[in-house]
Amino acid sequence: MSLKKKEERFDRALEEMGIRIKDADQMKVRDDVFDEITLLALYKLVHKKWISVVGGPISTGKEANVFYAEREGIPIAIKIYRIRTANFTTMGEYIRGDRRFASVRKNRKDLIFAWTKKEFSNLARAKDAGVPVPEPLVWDRNILIMSFLGEDERPYPQLRSVKLEDPMAVYKQIIGYIEALYSKAGLIHGDLSEFNILYGDQPYFIDMGQSVTRDHPRALPFLMRDVKNINRFFRNRCDVRGDEEIFNDITGLDKAEP
Ligand SMILES: Nc1ncnc2c1ncn2[C@@H]1O[C@H](COP(=O)(O)OP(=O)(O)OP(=O)(O)O)[C@@H](O)[C@H]1O
Ligand SMILES: [Mg+2]
Question: In this predicted model, what pLDDT tens digit does every residue of 196-212 receive, in sequence order?
Answer without folding.
Answer: 999 999 999 999 999 99
